[in-house]
């Protein structure tokens, strides 16, 4: 069951992210009622994620500027080399603070800041990845009253990240990529 009061979605992924996100993001309509804020671990050079997904998706896809207001019907990818945070006024903040678990952008940083801002209105999605970034942030979402969906580690390209999230968040929902896509597509239509 998804919360009727959902206000935003945050997604974290690493190894295997392009394939996983390709099963989810194209299913979101241009009029999707929520913002989707994503951290993917990428090298510090231009990633091409925005161009790749803009060509596949009906929903707007962009790399945000610092202090940019977060809008519904838009996917925001963290720029390579920057932490991306959600401020209390629901704007994007970009930071060059130290890497977390060797990653900048960090999934934990995004998830924790978004949990502080959106509370029970936040849906977190943990996808494939080969380290434990996102587990602490997923717990922060649960602690704030939000919902966490985790890709089934048995079918993930890299299972470390989903397993770490589930270990920290036993109440998270473990779902296939198709089931995650279905649930996210239904948010706002209930």
From TrEMBL:
Record-listed E.C. numbers: 3.1.1.61
The record's section on SUPFAM superfamilies has: Methylesterase CheB, C-terminal domain
- GO CC, alphabetical: cytoplasm
Gene3D superfamilies to which the protein is assigned, alphabetical: Methylesterase CheB, C-terminal domain
Highest taxon of the lineage = Bacteria
Enumerate the active-site residues: 14, 41, 133
Report what the protein is called: protein-glutamate methylesterase
